[in-house]
């Protein structure tokens, strides 16, 4: 009698073990929850694919049609001096930044900037150099690697086409690596003047308005 119960107990234990093993296999094969998938760290290829956005030209701003000339509206009477609103005061610049210098990161949303058009030959040459900068940007993130390739390509763009949207992209990339490590600014001579985009903020004769957006990390 005892032998029969031992056999039954042994069979039950075996069944439980089989159920546990099958459950473990199913849990391994089942997809991870959505929250875990979102928290998955980005790979080098994910970041490299995102870096390609620097190769994209900012969209041209469509010019509105000409409006018919209208009679000037009567000017409102000035309010008493005590009720007039004071113009906003400019924010103080950081000590390390010269006055009047504007960085690409100062743009917090879609902004219209003005770039000079390029000849077809110059545009083709710039299209060949800019991908070297974005590739060097991706390579620089790897362990023991540096941003020398990116800096060299950005420097060529800045010197040859300083008024183009390519130069703006170069300034974006240069500023971002200085945010990673302060030593990069000294290593690659990334001065505030190299990062300055104030020349693109105001309309100029012959310049094309384009909409630019900050590129997140």
Describe the structure.
It is a single chain. This protein has 217 residues and is mainly α. The protein has a domain at 44-56 and 100-212. It has 8 helices and 3 strands; from the N terminus they run αααββαααααβ. It has a 3-stranded antiparallel beta sheet with strand order 1-3-2, with no helix packed on it. Helix 4 (120-139) runs antiparallel to helix 5 and helix 5 (148-160) runs antiparallel to helix 6 (165-180). The protein is globular. The relative contact order is 0.15.
Report how far the terminal alpha carbons are from each other.
72 Å
User: Largest sheet, if any?
Assistant: 3 strands, antiparallel
Average pLDDT reading: 76
Number of helices: 8
Radius of gyration: 30 Å
Strand order of the largest sheet: 1-3-2
Q: Low-confidence segments, ≥5 residues, pLDDT <50?
A: 24-38, 65-69, 87-95
H/E topology pattern = HHHEEHHHHHE
Summing up helix and strand content along with how strands pair, one would put the structural category as mainly alpha
Number of strands: 3
How much of the sequence lies in strands comes to 5-15%
Helix-residue proportion: 40-55%
Shape: globular
Keywords:
217 residues, mainly alpha, 8 helices, globular, 3 strands, 3-stranded antiparallel beta sheet
Helices, strands, pairings?
Elements: H1 2-29, H2 34-38, H3 44-51, E1 59-60, E2 111-115, H4 120-139, H5 148-160, H6 165-180, H7 183-187, H8 192-195, E3 208-212
Antiparallel strand pairs: 1-3, 2-3
Helix pairs in contact: 3-4, 4-5, 4-6, 5-6
Give a quick precis of the structure.
Helix content is 46%, strand content 6%.
């Amino acid at each position: 009698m005892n032998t029969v119960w031992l056999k039954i107990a042994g069979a039950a234990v075996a069944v439980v073990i089989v159920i546990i093993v099958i459950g473990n296999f199913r849990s391994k094969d089942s997809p991870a929850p959505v929250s875990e998938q979102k928290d998955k760290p980005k790979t080098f290829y994910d970041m490299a694919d995102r870096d390609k956005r620097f190769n994209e030209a900012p969209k041209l701003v469509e010019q509105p049609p000409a409006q018919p000339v209208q009679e000037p509206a009567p000017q409102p009477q000035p309010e008493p001096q005590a009720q007039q609103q004071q113009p906003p005061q400019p924010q103080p610049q950081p000590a390390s930044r010269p006055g009047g210098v504007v960085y690409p990161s100062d743009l917090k949303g879609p902004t219209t900037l003005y770039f000079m058009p390029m000849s077809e030959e110059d545009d083709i040459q710039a299209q060949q150099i800019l991908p070297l900068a974005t590739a060097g940007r991706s390579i620089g993130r790897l362990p023991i690697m540096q941003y020398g390739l990116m800096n060299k390509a950005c420097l060529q763009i800045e010197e040859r086409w300083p008024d183009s949207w390519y130069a703006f992209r170069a300034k974006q990339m240069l500023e971002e690596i200085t945010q990673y490590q302060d030593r990069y600014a000294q290593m690659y001579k990334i001065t505030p003047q190299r990062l300055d985009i104030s020349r693109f903020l105001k309309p100029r004769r012959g310049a094309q308005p384009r909409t630019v957006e900050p590129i997140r990390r």
